[in-house]
Amino acid sequence: MTHEELLEKAKLAKQNAYVPYSNFRVGAALLGKSGRIYLGCNIENAAYSPTNCAERTALFKAVSEGERAFEAVAVTSDSDDITYPCGVCRQAMAEFSLDMMVISSNKDLKYNAVPLRELLPYAFTGKEME
Ligand code: THU
Fold first, then answer.
1. In testing the pocket of ligand 1, which one of 53, 84, 105 has its CB within 8 Å of the most ligand atoms?
2. pLDDT band at 1 (very low <50, low <70, confident <90, very high)
3. Which end of the chain has fewer CB within 10 Å, C or N?
4. Rounded distance, CA 82 to CA 119, Å?
5. How far apart, in Å, are the Cα atoms of 28 and each of 5, 13, 126?
6. Which pTM was predicted?
7. What does the angle CA 95 – CA 62 – CA 78 come to, to the nearest 5 degrees?
8. Of residues 55, 117, 122, 66, the one with CA closest to residue 92
9. 44 lines ligand 1 (CB under 6 A)
10. What is the pLDDT of residue 47?
11. pLDDT at position 127
């Protein structure tokens, strides 16, 4: 699975974004170690705080289906600028795979790929609690 292929899936996922408040559509495609791909979009809410980002939608779908480790996630939006996962999503994904590749892109799928570890240095992963 190339970065470009995963980004195309994220672009498809973006079509289902539910964004009546921001009108900012985001799509994510998460590649599990099993080889399965989980798609996610952002889902907004009139009360705002229940809003779920595209990345966490994909992550929660995957984890709820038994996937526990990930190779990569691709993210895209309608912006001219590259959209990177928010801090909450970085933390949520770090729970499972701090070394997964995060492929962040703009609306034309121009991308920057870096390991999650670089987007979330000194991460709190729970090891500290052992
Ligand atoms: N959003 C995402 O889905 N992923 C990101 O990486 C950044 C932000 C969503 C949340 C909200 O629906 C909209 O973009 C504006 O913040």
1. 53
2. very high
3. C
4. 14
5. 12, 6, 25
6. 0.97
7. 90
8. 55
9. yes
10. 98
11. 86
Residue nearest to atom 3 of ligand 1 (CA): 53
* Half-sphere exposure in the Cβ direction for 18 (13 Å, CA): 10
Look at the chain and count its residues: 130
Task: Using the structure block, give the residue that is written with the tokens 């964004």.
Answer: 19
| Tokens representing residue 19 in the block | 């964004």
Amino acid at 69: A
Query: Are 103 and 3 a contacting pair, CB within 8 Å?
Result: yes
Residue-wise DSSP of 48-103: STT-B-HHHHHHHHHHHTT---EEEEEEEES-SSPBPPPHHHHHHHHTT-TT-EEE
Sheet with 37-41: strands ordered across:
37-41, 26-32, 70-77, 101-105, 111-115
Q: What are the tokens at 115?
A: 């390991």
CB-based burial of residue 38 (10 Å sphere; 0-12 exposed, 13-18 middle, 19+ buried)?
A: buried
- Give the residue, by CA position, lying nearest to ligand 1 atom 10: 53
- For residue range 72-98, list pLDDT tens digits in order: 999 999 999 999 999 999 999 999 999
How many C-beta atoms lie closer than 10 Å to residue 60's C-beta? 14
